[in-house]
């Protein structure tokens, strides 16, 4: 990664700091207060030792100073604890805001964008990537602020007592951050590579887990296991190389701070021997010398948090910087789809790789009409539906709802008018009733039962071990494909939207399930506008009209009987599938 990119990542991390509010400043203020108390503690300790050793003070005489030291110890411990808690809360606020921003942005990018991404990579960025920010905001930033404040405060008190020691501290102090940066740069680049490797590894692992059945059936699971072992070993070696540099950085920091403290100690010792410095002031300076370098050593210890945050932020920024294709419509009032139709005018869309998915497409869907979209693979059917759903924006032409351009309507208002049933509906962990309520979370149980009955799903739901409260696994685990499809249909009935969009709801179903789903779809279509992608041409016979697409254009449109007479492409498709004549 280039230095310019590094700076953009650092700027982003600094920009996210605003989510912490005043908590980070409060944590730094507590750290500075603890540093000032440390100076007072060193003065009291030096005064006590000097009084006992040289003035022969007894316990009663130094007892007030000892009580003061005890109070300072307690105050500093309390400040350290409070500072850590406040900094942690600041980091939590930043993580929550960043994770919410990522989630909302991914949500706005939509399924069309997600289909081209590896889900494991996205999950890694939203989960582990965001978690990696905690140490940066909770520890590194406070340490970065204190690296100048506390040493300067110590210098202010050292100069009047021993200007020579102050000069040594001042000259040696810059060496530590200089070497820390020089060594840390190499570790930073390697750490970014590690994060990219981790993201790729997470995506690959998830792909393997999701495709485990296929891998086993093709006897490829052992080969994938060997590949995972090789990837894991490469990641381990990369991690060890980062740690080697990090340990080298720590060694350099400790070496320079130890040598600097030793120089101060030797000079103070000689000056005490020569009588140029009194004992109390010399001990005071010696007590402060290690504390002068402590903030720098703490920063060195926390420098890995900066590297980790920069590595994690790289992928997060890529996601957040991805432009959203949705336009910011302002209209929340959608024309009544039971009264007005939908019109596609000279619609065109091209994918980023240059593929022309839809070009010059003109089509009008009347209110209450059932329209089927058919065509060979790659004809543009799915792209057309994604344009209608608002997941993609046309590069040319427009979609009109009545006389209102779709891009003028807010996405939320438009999708409230749509019930969507894909080939493979997604069920989520929860009860059957909760999954039916997905589009209408406040619906009562009576409405849920009615929707399920219309979807031909109530009989098998009531036969489940716990009925409507039966928990379903991820992706509908424990239910058959036909049962999952009917639960998804029940969602559509419950939502009661005027526009229904289907993507071959009977694909991959047995004859009994297919018959039930088709019967429910006919019920759902009554009084609604229905647009469906038909892969199995048997379903087109229920449509009022059929639009035949090829190469992103509508080549013919008509009823099933009409197309059998006038459309060679439709005839070839019917002949190939052999299920619609």
What does the secondary structure layout of this molecule look like, with pairings?
Blueprint: H1 3-16, H2 23-53, H3 59-114, H4 119-131, H5 134-158, H6 163-172, H7 175-210, H8 212-217, H9 221-274, H10 279-320, E1 342-350, E2 356-365, E3 370-374, H11 381-389, E4 396-401, E5 404-405, H12 411-415, E6 418-421, E7 430-431, H13 432-436, H14 445-454, H15 458-462, E8 471-472, H16 481-495, E9 499-503, H17 511-525, E10 529-533, E11 545-550, E12 553-558, H18 560-566, H19 568-577
Parallel strand pairs: 3-10, 3-11, 6-9, 9-10
Antiparallel strand pairs: 1-2, 1-4, 4-5, 7-8, 11-12
**What CATH architecture label of the largest domain applies?**
Up-down Bundle
Structural class: alpha/beta
Provide mean pLDDT, rounded: 82
Q: Supply the number of structural domains.
A: 3
Instruction: Give me the number of helical elements.
Output: 19
Biggest sheet overview: 6 strands, mixed
If you compute it from the alpha carbons, what radius of gyration comes out, rounded to the nearest whole angstrom? 35 Å
Kindly report the spatial arrangement of strands forming the biggest sheet: 6-9-10-3-11-12
Low-confidence sequence ranges: none
**CATH C-level class of the largest domain:** Mainly Alpha
Number of strands: 12
The CATH fourth-level homologous superfamily of the largest domain: ABC transporter type 1, transmembrane domain
Distance N terminus to C terminus? 60 Å
């Amino acid at each position: 990664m280039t230095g310019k990119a590094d700076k953009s990542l650092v700027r982003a991390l600094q920009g996210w700091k605003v989510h912490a509010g005043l908590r980070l400043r409060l944590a730094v203020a507590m750290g500075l207060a603890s540093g000032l108390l440390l100076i007072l503690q060193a003065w009291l300790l030096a005064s006590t030792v000097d009084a006992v050793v040289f003035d022969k003070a007894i316990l009663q005489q130094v007892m007030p100073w000892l009580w003061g030291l005890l109070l300072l110890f307690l105050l500093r411990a309390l400040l350290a604890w409070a500072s850590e808690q406040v900094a942690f809360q600041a980091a939590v606020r930043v993580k929550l805001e960043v994770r919410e921003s990522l989630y909302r942005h991914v949500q706005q990018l939509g399924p069309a964008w997600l289909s081209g991404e590896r889900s494991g990579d996205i999950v890694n960025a939203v989960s582990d990537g965001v978690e990696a920010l905690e140490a940066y905001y909770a520890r590194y930033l406070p340490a970065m602020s204190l690296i100048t404040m506390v040493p300067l405060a110590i210098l202010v008190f050292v100069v009047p007592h021993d200007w020579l020691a102050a000069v040594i501290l001042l000259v040696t102090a810059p060496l530590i951050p200089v070497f820390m940066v020089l060594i840390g740069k190499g570790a930073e680049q390697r750490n970014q590579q590690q994060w990219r490797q981790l993201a790729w590894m997470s995506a690959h692992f998830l792909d393997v887990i999701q495709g485990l059945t296929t891998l086993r059936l093709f006897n490829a699971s052992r080969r994938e296991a060997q590949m995972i072992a090789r990837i894991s070993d490469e990641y381990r070696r990369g991690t060890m190389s980062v740690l080697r540099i990090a340990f080298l950085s720590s060694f350099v920091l400790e070496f320079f701070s130890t040598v600097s403290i030793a120089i101060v100690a030797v000079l103070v010792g000689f000056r005490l021997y020569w009588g140029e410095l009194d004992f109390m002031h010399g001990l005071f300076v010696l007590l402060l010398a290690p504390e002068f370098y402590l903030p720098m050593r703490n920063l060195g210890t926390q420098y890995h948090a900066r590297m980790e945050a920069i590595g994690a932020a790289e992928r997060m920024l890529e996601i957040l910087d991805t432009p959203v294709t949705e336009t910011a419509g302002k209209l929340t009032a959608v024309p009544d789809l039971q009264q007005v139709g939908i019109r596609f005018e000279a619609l065109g869309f091209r994918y980023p790789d240059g593929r022309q998915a839809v070009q010059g497409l003109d089509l009008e869907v009347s209110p209450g009409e059932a329209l089927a979209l058919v065509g060979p693979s790659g004809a543009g059917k799915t792209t057309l539906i994604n344009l209608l759903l608002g997941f993609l924006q046309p590069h040319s032409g427009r979609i009109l709802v009545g006389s209102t351009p779709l891009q003028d309507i807010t996405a939320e208002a438009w999708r409230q008018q749509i019930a969507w049933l894909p080939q493979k509906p997604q069920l989520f962990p929860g009860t059957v009733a909760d999954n039916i309520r997905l589009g209408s979370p406040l619906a009562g149980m009576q409405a849920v039962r009615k929707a399920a009955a219309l979807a031909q799903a109530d009989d098998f739901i009531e036969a489940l071990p716990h009925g409507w409260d039966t928990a379903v696994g991820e992706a509908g685990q424990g239910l058959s494909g036909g049962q999952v499809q009917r639960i998804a249909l029940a969602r559509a009935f419950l939502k009661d939207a005027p526009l229904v969009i289907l993507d071959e709801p009977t694909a991959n179903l047995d004859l009994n399930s297919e018959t039930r789903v088709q019967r429910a779809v006919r019920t759902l279509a009554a009084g609604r506008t229905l647009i469906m992608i038909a892969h199995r041409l048997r379903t087109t016979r229920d449509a009022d009209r059929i639009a035949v697409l090829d190469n992103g254009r509508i080549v013919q449109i008509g009823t099933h009987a009409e197309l059998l007479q006038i459309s060679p492409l439709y005839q070839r498709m019917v002949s190939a599938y052999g299920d619609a004549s």
